[in-house]
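Let us practice reading a record.
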Amino acid sequence: MRRAAIVLRQLQLQGGHAHPHAHPHASHTCGGALRGLATGLKDVEPKTLAKARRLALAVGTAAGAFGSLVGVGGGVLIVPAIVNACPSIPQRVISGTSLAAVVATGSTAGAVYLGSGLVDATSALLIAGGAVLTAPLGARYTARLNCQALRRLLGWWLIGVAPLVPAKALLLARDGDGAGGGDAGAAAAGTAAGSTGRALAAAPAGAAAAGTAGGDAGSGPARSTELLLRPLRPADAAIAATGCFAGFASGLLGIGGGTIVTPMLAVATSLPHAAVLGTSLAAMIPPSLVGLLQHARMGNVDVRMGAALAAGTAMGSYVGSAAALAAPPGVLEAVFAVGMAFLGRKTLQAANKAAAAAAKAAAAAAAK
């Protein structure tokens, strides 16, 4: 049971090192989780902790804006920023606390996208359910597979997929213009956020690029803000598989599911790009909340730092998601491409750094 609790914490944007033992007084209740908060900080100097708490609001704001525009939780910025500024704070505590920011990003940006009907609730539930189920399985294979090679593969995947999303948008827009359906082509490219969103809330996502968008363009906000479940369709098998794969990769590599889910939804589905972001961000709320509770039970959450991070990411993600909805055609896809390339580069750097550290440790052990 202890192993299951530890591996679930892998559902985060930036992996850390698991705390070897759960807090002895933690229980399986929320009260037990609260009693275990911040026990991982007992050896950290107060001035270092105060510095991290001061940084949290600004770092969280930047991470929230980035995450809401790219479709990730923001931990990929939060963890290295605070680790570099306060290296004496255990990374497991920073990683665990950063999950509060991921929950805030998903909730705030998801609500903004939902306000324009740009969340496919059924897809989000399928992705979240699959991720929660398969993350422990991925963690069990950590010692059996070459994780550094897989990290490099993920890094190259992110770099490779980066230009595909703008290219897809250009092709869809060109096809729509060629067919005389300018509005439909724009919706398929993810640029007509309002009308596309209302169609998405009322019909399967694949129909959003059709004339439904134009017919619902004048719908009132009450309809667009409803979180509606749609009937399952054959294509949902691929969406559920995406969630399962993202959860497995999160458990195996200690990465955030958004780096898997967002590019796969963007490339493999007919969802408008803004709906891809909204759906991916909404899907990361349940697994991140589970991971946050697990970290709290192990003493890896600082409440004050987490509150500052959550406040910052809430502000940043609100501004970022609002800007995404107002972005001119093609801008959102271009931002996504730059963001994925950035994440891919960071993933490759982390893999190379970990491989070098492992080789150094092996050499030191052999010299003894």
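A brief commentary: The chain has 18 helices and no strands.
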